[in-house]
Amino acid sequence: MLELVNAWGPLLQSVVVVGSVIGFVYSMKSEILTIKTDLSNLKDAQKTLNEAFTQLGRILTQVAVQDSRLNMFEKRLDELIHGQGT
After folding, report:
1. How far apart are CA 86 and CA 17, in angstroms?
2. Residue 76 contacts by C-beta under 8 Å, 6 or more apart in sequence?
3. DSSP label of 82
4. How far apart, in whole angstroms, are the C-alpha atoms of residue 81 and residue 4?
5. What one-character-per-residue DSSP string does 19-74 give?
6. 29-47 burial: b if 16+ Cβ within 10 Å, else e
7. Is the overall model pTM greater than 0.70, yes or no?
8. Could you read off the pLDDT of 5-36 as tens digits, one per residue?
9. First and final C-alpha spacing in the chain
10. What is the DSSP code (8-state) at residue 42?
Protein backbone atom coordinates (compact mmCIF):
# COMPACT_ATOMS: atom_id res chain seq x y z
CA MET A 1 0.00 0.00 0.00
CA LEU A 2 2.85 2.38 0.85
CA GLU A 3 4.38 1.74 -2.57
CA LEU A 4 1.11 2.81 -4.25
CA VAL A 5 1.12 6.10 -2.34
CA ASN A 6 4.75 6.67 -3.29
CA ALA A 7 3.86 6.06 -6.97
CA TRP A 8 0.94 8.50 -6.96
CA GLY A 9 2.80 11.26 -5.10
CA PRO A 10 5.02 12.49 -7.95
CA LEU A 11 2.16 12.10 -10.43
CA LEU A 12 -0.16 14.16 -8.25
CA GLN A 13 2.57 16.77 -7.76
CA SER A 14 3.06 16.98 -11.54
CA VAL A 15 -0.67 17.44 -12.08
CA VAL A 16 -0.78 20.25 -9.52
CA VAL A 17 2.22 21.99 -11.10
CA VAL A 18 0.74 21.71 -14.62
CA GLY A 19 -2.62 22.96 -13.35
CA SER A 20 -0.95 25.93 -11.67
CA VAL A 21 0.95 26.81 -14.83
CA ILE A 22 -2.23 26.60 -16.93
CA GLY A 23 -4.07 28.80 -14.43
CA PHE A 24 -1.24 31.33 -14.42
CA VAL A 25 -1.12 31.47 -18.23
CA TYR A 26 -4.89 31.88 -18.42
CA SER A 27 -4.88 34.72 -15.89
CA MET A 28 -2.00 36.44 -17.70
CA LYS A 29 -3.86 36.14 -21.00
CA SER A 30 -6.66 38.35 -19.73
CA GLU A 31 -4.13 40.82 -18.32
CA ILE A 32 -2.31 40.98 -21.65
CA LEU A 33 -5.58 41.62 -23.50
CA THR A 34 -6.38 44.41 -21.04
CA ILE A 35 -2.95 45.97 -21.59
CA LYS A 36 -3.37 45.76 -25.38
CA THR A 37 -6.72 47.55 -25.12
CA ASP A 38 -5.23 50.22 -22.88
CA LEU A 39 -2.35 50.77 -25.31
CA SER A 40 -4.78 51.13 -28.19
CA ASN A 41 -6.76 53.72 -26.24
CA LEU A 42 -3.56 55.59 -25.36
CA LYS A 43 -2.52 55.67 -29.02
CA ASP A 44 -5.91 57.15 -29.96
CA ALA A 45 -5.62 59.75 -27.21
CA GLN A 46 -2.08 60.63 -28.29
CA LYS A 47 -3.24 61.08 -31.89
CA THR A 48 -6.01 63.40 -30.73
CA LEU A 49 -3.59 65.42 -28.59
CA ASN A 50 -1.11 65.72 -31.46
CA GLU A 51 -3.87 67.10 -33.70
CA ALA A 52 -4.91 69.55 -30.98
CA PHE A 53 -1.33 70.76 -30.49
CA THR A 54 -0.94 71.19 -34.25
CA GLN A 55 -4.05 73.35 -34.33
CA LEU A 56 -2.83 75.29 -31.31
CA GLY A 57 0.46 75.96 -33.08
CA ARG A 58 -1.39 77.31 -36.13
CA ILE A 59 -3.55 79.53 -33.94
CA LEU A 60 -0.54 80.89 -32.05
CA THR A 61 1.17 81.69 -35.36
CA GLN A 62 -1.92 83.54 -36.56
CA VAL A 63 -2.12 85.48 -33.29
CA ALA A 64 1.56 86.44 -33.58
CA VAL A 65 1.02 87.68 -37.15
CA GLN A 66 -2.01 89.70 -36.08
CA ASP A 67 -0.07 91.14 -33.13
CA SER A 68 2.74 92.19 -35.46
CA ARG A 69 0.27 93.84 -37.80
CA LEU A 70 -1.41 95.70 -34.94
CA ASN A 71 1.95 96.91 -33.63
CA MET A 72 2.86 98.22 -37.10
CA PHE A 73 -0.55 99.90 -37.37
CA GLU A 74 -0.11 101.56 -33.96
CA LYS A 75 3.36 102.78 -34.95
CA ARG A 76 2.00 104.31 -38.19
CA LEU A 77 -0.89 105.88 -36.31
CA ASP A 78 1.50 107.42 -33.77
CA GLU A 79 3.64 108.77 -36.61
CA LEU A 80 0.59 110.31 -38.27
CA ILE A 81 -0.56 111.86 -35.01
CA HIS A 82 2.86 113.45 -34.47
CA GLY A 83 3.10 114.61 -38.08
CA GLN A 84 5.93 112.32 -39.05
CA GLY A 85 4.07 110.02 -41.44
CA THR A 86 3.32 110.54 -45.08
Report:
1. 95
2. 85
3. T
4. 113
5. HHHHHHHHHHHHHHHHHHHHHHHHHHHHHHHHHHHHHHHHHHHHHHHHHHHHHHHH
6. eeeeeeeeeeeeeeeeeee
7. no
8. 567 777 788 889 999 999 888 889 888 899 99
9. 119
10. H
